[in-house]
């Protein structure tokens, strides 16, 4: 039934423009017959294939392994050892919710390629999905973290958090996408020229500058509306809970509901992320730094590791403390060491260089082609250079590193400022980098290697002696022998 309804939707979406195109050169009844026949073939064929796939799919949860058998011509038999299973995530779009079904994704968190580290059941009843999740994650009860800490509900959605959606980087991207979608849809119906002509007529006697301002404002307004809608879809009904046995569970979603689970024993810390727009409003989001996150989950679907959406900074700090079972979040209690002034010089140089590059290109084109581009280059320089200087200075002020109990803390970034609190015991190595320019300035970049999260977290442009001492103190004995040899040399 799910496949039939999906195919019907696809057929409707594809059939409408096809019907309009056919109706232009032949009788309406004939065009309708062609489109209806193609739609019926698509729905029946897709439903039949999915029925065969469903009939040939078997799964079994044994004492030691979870097994999945699929395929008709090419039969696949895959299994995962239960002790390797790290997550059981449930997802249901609107159609599945109406039918009382969910998709179950069982994962080990390894990135072995070709989906070999996951088993996907599409779809089972909601009751069966919950049963599988409880059964497969029940083994963690014996390894739960001891101690008296907050259990049950750790955070719940505050609708006021929606105010942070319009200031995210998603808004301008959605605005551009809306303009592109409008032009594409109008082209399907042969009306793109009319749309462009209508817009041109509205601004017939308006100066070019105001035309650009109006169009940009319209795209931004569309982006804000899109960002609000996307936020509601992603985070409505959000709830973060600690379940018995030491499992963190995030549930969220309006139309498509998601249930994501992370074992606490996989956590190696947290990252407090503050994009520029969100930071100006005093907010931050909390991401998990956990082992066993597959590359696709960690980068392609970054929201899979988000434990708290953008919320007031104090709320984010409190939730981070609950998650880590600490009295206060290490990102709050750590006393960060500022970096030398030479680090500020490097950031100003990078920011101004990045701003000047397009200005110089425009100026060169203006000399070769037209004086108009020279005025454009001058205007860009007046606007962009002060912004670049402010961002460079802000990037320097954001630099810092320190320790808080069992965590090392590092902060960096301006457009996207991130403060990571990483368990010192989770650091498996240090990478020390020093370019020619850093060597002259007495700076060094230290990268803590870990099996969790992004795999590496850096302390950028720290003072050479202070930074190396920090790395040695954070993980004693790991870097010390190399420092001793350097001193002897």
TrEMBL record:
<protein>
    <recommendedName>
        <fullName>YdbS-like PH domain-containing protein</fullName>
    </recommendedName>
</protein>
<feature type="transmembrane region" description="Helical">
    <location>
        <begin position="31"/>
        <end position="52"/>
    </location>
</feature>
<feature type="transmembrane region" description="Helical">
    <location>
        <begin position="169"/>
        <end position="189"/>
    </location>
</feature>
<feature type="transmembrane region" description="Helical">
    <location>
        <begin position="372"/>
        <end position="391"/>
    </location>
</feature>
<feature type="domain" description="YdbS-like PH">
    <location>
        <begin position="404"/>
        <end position="461"/>
    </location>
</feature>
<dbReference type="InterPro" id="IPR005182">
    <property type="entry name" value="YdbS-like_PH"/>
</dbReference>
<keyword id="KW-0472">Membrane</keyword>
<feature type="transmembrane region" description="Helical">
    <location>
        <begin position="209"/>
        <end position="232"/>
    </location>
</feature>
<keyword id="KW-0812">Transmembrane</keyword>
<keyword id="KW-1133">Transmembrane helix</keyword>
<dbReference type="InterPro" id="IPR014529">
    <property type="entry name" value="UCP026631"/>
</dbReference>
<feature type="domain" description="YdbS-like PH">
    <location>
        <begin position="54"/>
        <end position="135"/>
    </location>
</feature>
<dbReference type="Pfam" id="PF03703">
    <property type="entry name" value="bPH_2"/>
</dbReference>
<feature type="transmembrane region" description="Helical">
    <location>
        <begin position="348"/>
        <end position="366"/>
    </location>
</feature>
């Amino acid at each position: 039934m799910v496949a039939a309804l999906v195919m019907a939707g696809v057929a409707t979406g594809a059939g409408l423009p096809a019907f309009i195109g056919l109706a232009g050169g032949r009788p309406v009844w004939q065009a309708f017959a062609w489109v209806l026949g193609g739609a019926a073939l698509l729905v029946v064929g897709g439903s039949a294939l999915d029925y065969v796939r469903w009939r040939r799919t078997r799964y079994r949860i044994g004492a030691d392994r979870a097994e999945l058998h699929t395929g008709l011509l090419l039969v696949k038999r895959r299994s995962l050892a239960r002790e390797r299973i790290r997550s059981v995530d449930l997802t249901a779009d609107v159609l599945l919710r109406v039918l009382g079904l969910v998709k179950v994704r069982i994962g080990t968190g390894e990135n072995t390629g070709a989906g070999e580290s996951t088993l996907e059941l599409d779809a089972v009843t909601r009751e069966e999905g919950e049963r599988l999740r409880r059964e497969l994650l029940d083994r963690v009860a014996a390894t739960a973290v001891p101690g008296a800490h907050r259990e049950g509900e750790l955070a719940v959605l505050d609708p006021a958090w929606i105010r942070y959606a319009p200031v995210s980087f998603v808004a301008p991207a959605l605005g551009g996408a809306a303009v592109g979608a409008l032009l594409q849809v109008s082209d399907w119906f042969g009306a793109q020229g009319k749309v462009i002509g209508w817009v041109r007529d509205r601004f017939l006697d308006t100066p070019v500058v105001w035309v650009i301002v109006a169009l940009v404002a319209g795209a931004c307004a569309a982006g804000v509306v899109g960002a609000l809608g996307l936020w509601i879809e992603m985070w409505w009904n959000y709830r973060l809970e600690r379940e018995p046995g030491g499992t963190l569970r995030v549930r969220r979603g309006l139309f498509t509901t998601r249930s994501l689970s992370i074992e606490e024993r996989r956590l190696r810390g947290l990252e407090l992320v503050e994009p520029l727009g969100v930071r100006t409003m005093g907010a931050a989001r909390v991401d998990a730094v956990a082992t066993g996150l597959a590359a696709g989950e960690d980068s392609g679907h970054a929201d899979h590791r988000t434990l708290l959406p953008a919320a007031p900074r104090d709320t984010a700090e409190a939730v981070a403390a609950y998650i880590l079972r600490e009295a206060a979040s290490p990102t709050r209690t750590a006393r960060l060491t500022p970096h030398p002034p030479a680090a500020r010089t490097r950031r100003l140089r990078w920011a101004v260089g990045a701003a000047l590059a397009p200005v110089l290109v425009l100026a060169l084109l203006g000399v070769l082609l037209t004086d108009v581009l020279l005025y454009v280059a001058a205007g860009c320089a007046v606007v962009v250079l002060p912004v670049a200087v402010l961002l460079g200075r802000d990037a320097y002020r954001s630099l810092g590193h320190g320790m808080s109990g069992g965590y090392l803390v590092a902060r960096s970034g301006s457009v996207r400022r991130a403060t990571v609190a990483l368990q010192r015991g989770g650091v498996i190595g240090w990478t020390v980098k020093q370019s020619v320019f850093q060597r002259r300035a007495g700076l060094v970049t230290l990268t803590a290697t870990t099996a969790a999260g992004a795999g590496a977290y850096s302390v950028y442009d720290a003072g050479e002696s202070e930074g190396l001492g920090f790395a040695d103190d954070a993980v004693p004995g790991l870097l010390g022998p190399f420092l001793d040899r350097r001193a002897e040399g």
